């Protein structure tokens, strides 16, 4: 722990947010700015027979209306990750058109954009655009999409598969082990489709400066540089250095704001066409229909055990929906971000996962908080608890029996899994022990027995998760199909007065980077936090960075900054040595000054900074300035882990689940700011609880969405959840300089199976072994009466 | 239509289409962008302001309906540099992350505490049922309001 | 989201509102709290060309005691009703129901009259209005009339109100004992099932909302009532037109109705 590192420092971002002075994209107004509205398909699958914009064009205030026939039809948004078929066939990759031409492939797909002086006028005119459709049958379920004769999403391919994929040991070997296993536990379910629902809707402003030939795109994105690259090089074919992407305050992302969306590209194109800035802000209905969704896996799984309850083999087949078009990271989510976590925290010797990923007549499915790891964790943690019940074992006992033994990744090597990854460091027993202690597990079991005698349905659910984050080594992700590197950039610019500007390629949309990054930079430099400013979200200021997702900001972005801090100190030492007339190796740096060891001769960071920019009396051959930029490409992912425990009571009359307690003991490596880490865990947990109990995107047979507003899509409200009790163990990451692992997604990964396990536990004496998520009162009641 | 509304203590007169909601009016016509729009149909609570002292979802009040009323937005909560005790409490207890739902949370908290200066945890949670937060899990928002209640009593 | 264009007229008196309503006929909608109307206009599901705002009519904003009745102006908000001493003392069940509606912000704006006129089958008040045998006071071009609770709710989103009529007040008989029990829909927080039950002599009167396209009196339960909750099993006798959605299908909703009638009888 330093002066700032490890302390619950209050956030410097808060004052502006609390005063209503945040700068979200929709808050920005530019001179001569126009507004826009989309005309969207009311069908999931249809032929576009006719579009008539004549009446709309005559409406007051209309500046322009574009359809795919009006010059933007050739452009399409690509995917950022390629996963080929098992047989080597190339992934099927349709370009996502900026506006639909001829055919609609999902509900809400845009067919026209109306530009007007005011939003009112744009909406009014959009209502007047006439579109005739010929509706076609649609398929929204990933398994049904693979049935022969299923409606095709893209006519050019003989079936709906975009790719298929497998990982792990030889399938025949795994099947053989299952056939000879003492006990086999099976599960079939759907990890349901979720809508991310950041409370700030997506918002973009594109501004083309005709004189400079430059665009500025204000966008609510988690990753400004990647948006710029995709937009320029892969969609519109415009020069990258002529585009500035700005992403100031962003109101939550949870994955949904990683991707390059068609609207961003279209607005950029429109702005040049009309020679004026143009804004679009999604409304909530559009958000449900067009923001990339999460999850949607249809799962069939078997896990085999020996007579002692040790796992001997695990085989799973999944159908994973991709939607009508491939979103930026979509192919990675059900594959490399998912199958690679099938080892879990257990010593399972044989694992095989087979994935079929079809197109569906739905909006795209991509990474949503946890991205593939929640789906893996849900499966492992549900099936092992189900197995425990079937084998008459305690769910904690079966986990202890199967845990990978502790390893620190320094003295003991990392753990090589059956599914490609090597875990960095872990102590899984410790988090489960602590979790059980926090609850008072033995006591609880007694209380539960007592409650049952009184007719109460009380249950406890355990989940011990691991996740892979700090995404990650470029060469590794490249070999897995990523089309971008996944390093990070961090620059430290020391100003002549010793004040420090830090530039990071990560992006903060709630995580508190402005505070946390300043904490460790100030500590490492031995200066006050007030002397450090963090800049992000501006592609003109920051070198090419990779943004924020996959709990990577601190582990990857923080490490890049540390590299630059080290370069500053290294060069500073040369200047200090010159000023102190001492040898560099005789100096030590502490509390913001270089001191000649064993003397009181010292020079301050500020003096050295000034000297670097006023190099009158200066080391020979040394460049002036104190300004470094570094790229950090880690050697491995990081692997946070933890135990989550839920205690529930089920209303026996209605099936309604009351979440009584939720306990989380997480290990995210070293902790920079415990207040912020706890906040990340609490928020993640509640999002995971949302999946377990409340949330589901429901499409009907023709592809209409039955859950397209807050009247039908249930999310956790304040009175749905209790206080989240948190604790942690600390197992540092051995391979990055801060020893951090990442905390952004852990909560959402561990919590979902804990809650479902608890409900099933509460009802186990009634013969309930599984319930489909979300565990609505209706589903729970029906399970009780099945 | 011509309307006059006292907003954060200042009388504002404007000519406006009847179909413009109060939230839209605040943001687009007065540049008071602290009032956020998350769903625009009274589901999420991000647009909460007080109208004649009561918390309302400004997306579902027409600006013309507020004619002659007094409105306080998040921008009107602090006295100069001195934040309102509720705002202070949110900072103290990390009651916000991305900040988008925050103005609505603060304004709703003001209504909760006005009617019930000593709320229990359950009463606070019940009071927040009209406000979504997707970041915090509500844990620290509830704590912030508990802390604000203590501070405001003191 | 922006509604289609409309004209807005703020009525300063009931008389003015009635005249305006007659003048504009089908084109007009009455605006009270606006919490159902404005969202549906924003989604352009409703496109009235005139809105007549009755929110400022103070004569419709009072809660008074008139003999054996509590008379509640149609403009009273859910918050007013939930916190009124008169209502709490004499029609406590109504303040319970009001407190179950929406959230603080919605209760600060939404009105009793507006909610009843809108007649959403999942709204909370109808159960209480039916159980209490309240009367709805309406005024139109032919003057004032009262409509009994049983006659008021006619079909999904349809009431006995004529196009030229406005609800001005609702008269609730004083109730010594009553309870409102609700099973919340987890997204909208509307009622999947809402049951209002009051004691009347030795008997009970029970209103049920959320279950069917039209809220109803659980007469089979009332008839079978024996002082215990065993009559709850009759809650769905003779009920058809049962609402079904992804939160509650017919089977589950019917089950919930029986559970909540039972709970209401037990809470009495």
UniProtKB/TrEMBL annotation, chain A:
Domain Aldehyde oxidase/xanthine dehydrogenase a/b hammerhead intervals: 19-137
MF GO annotations: iron ion binding; oxidoreductase activity
InterPro entries: Ald_Oxase/Xan_DH_a/b, Ald_Oxase/Xan_DH_a/b_sf, Ald_Oxase/xanthine_DH-like, AldOxase/xan_DH_MoCoBD1, AldOxase/xan_DH_MoCoBD2, AldOxase/xan_DH_Mopterin-bd_sf
Keywords for this protein: Molybdenum, Oxidoreductase
Keyword flag Methyltransferase: no
UniProt KW Hydrolase keyword: no
PANTHER family linked: ALDEHYDE OXIDASE 1-RELATED, XANTHINE DEHYDROGENASE
This protein's name: Molybdopterin-dependent oxidoreductase
From TrEMBL, chain B:
One Gene Ontology term of the molecular function aspect: 2 iron, 2 sulfur cluster binding
2Fe-2S ferredoxin-type domain boundaries: 1-77
PROSITE patterns, A to Z: 2FE2S_FER_2
Entry-linked InterPro entries: 2Fe-2S-bd, 2Fe-2S-bd_dom_sf, 2Fe-2S_ferredoxin-like_sf, 2Fe-2S_ferredoxin-type, Beta-grasp_dom_sf, Diverse_Oxidoreductases
Keywords: 2Fe-2S, Iron, Iron-sulfur, Metal-binding, Oxidoreductase
Record-linked Pfam families: Fer2, Fer2_2
Superkingdom per UniProt: Bacteria
Name the record gives this protein: (2Fe-2S)-binding protein
Organism: Pelagihabitans pacificus
TrEMBL record, chain C:
Residue ranges of every copy of the FAD-binding PCMH-type domain listed in the record: 1-177
A Gene Ontology molecular function term of the record: oxidoreductase activity
Pfam families named among the record's database cross-references: FAD_binding_5
Gene3D superfamilies for this protein: 3.30.465.10, CO dehydrogenase flavoprotein, C-terminal domain, Uridine Diphospho-n-acetylenolpyruvylglucosamine Reductase, domain 2
Keywords (A to Z) from UniProt: FAD, Flavoprotein, Oxidoreductase
Protein name as catalogued: Xanthine dehydrogenase family protein subunit M
